[in-house]
Amino acid sequence: MKSLFRSLSAVTLTLAVVAPQALAQDAYPTRPIRIVVPYPAGSALESVARTVSQTYNDNLGQPAVIMNKPGGSGIIGTQEVARAQPDGYTLLLGTNQTHGANSALYPNLPYDALGDFTPIAGLARMQHVLVVRKNLGVDSVRGLIELANKPGANLNVGSSGNGSASHLVAEMFMRSADVKMAHIPYKGSGEVAQGLLGGFVDVSFATLPSVLPFIKDGSIVALAVASKDRAPQLDSLPTLAQEGVRDVEADAWTALFAPAGTPPAVLAKVSAVTIDAFKDPGVVEKIGATGFVPEVTDGAAFKAFLAQDMQRWADVIKAANVKLD
Binning pLDDT at 50, 70 and 90, where does residue 316 land? Predict the structure, then answer.
């Protein structure tokens, strides 16, 4: 009888501990959710971040607040989420830089891109487009290469930061086309676009969302896409390969992550809401219009992709011989 009583007591104690946790997960969320964007406000990720925020506002019954935490090539904001309580209330809008290039560029990276995070969903990819300032006087890839090779040309190429995808693509281009340009790192894609508009930047491999409006109004000149396929929004613009510059393909991506250890029930709930929203034709059209290529995947599929993509960016960095001071 005593043995039975002890067993029942143990079960009761277990239920007393588990039940509140289960109820808390079922009720999730009960307070606002933070979506950390590790880049400045106004970056190319703005439209995706707003879409995620609105999705959670509409479907989870709690406000979802966008928190821009820029700095350190995306490291500062990403590290903050890695150290956050794994309860589903702090999420990260990560990129190929935060979870790809940084792992190869920084030997003492203060987070583990695979071990410290659980993917919620892959959301979209960003093509990089080769653009030049309006008054540079070139309208083709060949024309740019010829100008860059002229004595005294001294062209510069702006990027959204050291080790960013736009930096790496520029290095690949210079290597493949056998040209030299001075690299100018900015703090985000928005600053690069302003540099082009102001005439301070000659050339850039910019994410399409950050420059699409300026390409359309003619204030920035697009020459080619650094991707395996043409941009749906600019289908007459050739790829670099079609212009004779090979092996310069490096699409960026964005995905939503939670800290490792987040309860499976919470992950399942937020993942389902996210995937349903990003499959909606209206959202697909809206995201596509900003320059992204919508490609939503579930967390498990994205985790498998991420491991492969990290190796891809490591190979790109090695091939381009990119080293940070």
Answer: confident
